[in-house]
Amino acid sequence: MQHIPMPYLLFLGDVMDPLAAKTARGIYVWRPDSCIGQIRLATDSVSLGLEEMDIATAKARGAKTMVLGTANSGGKLPAHWLDSIKTAIRAGLNVANGLHQGLNDIPELVELAKEHHVALFDVRHMRPALDTGTGIKRSGKRILTVGTDCSVGKMYTSLALEAAMRALDLNADFRATGQTGVLVAGSGIAIDAVIADFISGAVEALSPANEDHHWDIIEGQGSLYHPSFAGVSMGLIHGAQAHLLVMCHELGRPHMRHLPHQPMPTLRQCVDTNLAAAQLTSPHVKLAGFSLNTSGVSEDEARSALADITAEFGVPATDPVRFGIQEMAQWIKDNG
User: Fold this and answer.
1) What is the average per-residue pLDDT within 45-64?
2) Strands 171-175, 214-218: pairing kind
3) Which pTM was predicted?
4) N or C, where is the chain less crowded by C-beta within 10 Å?
């Protein structure tokens, strides 16, 4: 599996919407020591607060890859970014890209990269040759984050759990399945770009057999209850062969994301459905806890809701941003 060389120079272009820079922000939050600086094309565009630097300075400071850290509608590469990309290549930097449009689809960039002996990483299309999943039992332990819906914190929860488990001296590794996660980890497979028949096989390749006490924490995608993305979620569940599931949810969300006609499932429905699906490849799978986004309510309301969930299901429930995730990591150490 390809690895993207770190440290990074984060390219923010000229985007004005903070949400458009979520990829760069995710990298900086979770791998700050791997971020040399940022480069922008407009002084009033989104900033992460990193040191501003040009490409030559970043190279001199040790940067190995310039990351296109923004997203836009349609995932197309803006033409006016090409000059910066070419400059980075000529300076000897690799370039990593999370947009749908690939750098490797632009012949001029491919030739320039060959000439300067650097690599172009199209994160959505980085993957080894894949087979279909088999469900054959494999060694090692695996946790999969699942959700009641899309965009409920599965990546954040996975990374927070990795850090908390490592703090307890557990051997744990985050396994990325989305473009931001791949750039944070430096490797992984963007599952939304995998042909449907190979999704479970991709997850098996991403989290292969390992030592008995090693934990892979696999980043989930979508939801079994989301009509648009349930297929991706099911492939992840079967390929993960998870020992433990962590359920992610946003407290108070009124309906499935972008689908006002589709009501949210209850936590009980979602837990039961995900456990039943996971039992196909992991008959003894268990629920390890709940990770909630409680930003829409007060701290007292959040604590009360989390206590109710813990009482109902008998496992830890937390908001990892507000309250941390150490209790869940300890539960995994004691019960996993």
Assistant:
1) 97
2) parallel
3) 0.93
4) N
